[in-house]
Specification:
binds S-adenosylmethionine, Rossmann fold, 9 helices, 2 domains, seven-stranded mixed beta sheet, alpha/beta, about 240 residues
Length: about 240
Amino acid sequence: MFDERGPTFTELMRQALSSTTKGYDMLAPKFEYTPFRTPDEVMEPLKEVVGSVDRALDLCCGTGAAMAILRPLCREYVTGVDRSQGMLDEASKLLQDVKGHAEIRLEQGNVLELDYQEEFDVVVTFGALGHILPDDQDRFVKGAFEALRPGGRFIFATAPMPAMWTPRWWVSRTFNAAMHVRNALIKPPFIMFYLIFTLERALEVLKRNGFDVEVLSPYEGTRFSVMRLVVATRPS
Ligand SMILES: C[S@@+](CC[C@H](N)C(=O)[O-])C[C@H]1O[C@@H](n2cnc3c(N)ncnc32)[C@H](O)[C@@H]1O
């Protein structure tokens, strides 16, 4: 549908009718050729912002797009957590030849049930905020906070809420409405909604959970100019 190596329309429909995890398990072998894989340009700014650290954690790592950027920046290890074993299996293959010496650790798990304590210098998440329902966002952010050592940073990209008259607002709202209908009719649900973790909402949730927050604009002049890079620091 998006690329000749990517999923067909029928495959995508079948995936959307499965649960979130099963859907990603099915999509995994072709995920790299979909627009759902975060483009490298979105993660490029990590190189400068992260600098050189000991350990990093990627939440909802998928096929490891952010881990590939983080590995050369880490001295000890880069951990990726994802609920889909299919996605982790792809990550394991794709990360084999990536530059850097840090150990790659892939862990299957729910990012709403993290159990790391002050272990990481940096926690990131890309392309997955739409999978975290509003009622779960505090739990998600708290898990990231606890995983960071004091002074560590939680980094991700999001965008401000678009105005109601923009196509982006209407397309997102229409998609969300279709998802609500799908989830009302079919169990288990597929959790994916647009505009639920906007910049405004992110600032609110991060501050409520103890982070100091900085918002960077590294995407100006690119096709991602609406996006911002959020750098939330766990106070020392
Ligand atoms: C759109 S993909 C993004 C993958 C990758 N981070 C990227 O940017 O290319 C979303 C990923 O989030 C994972 N995911 C969704 N909800 C999750 C949860 N509650 N716990 C762990 N992983 C989750 C899915 O399995 C999927 O691999």
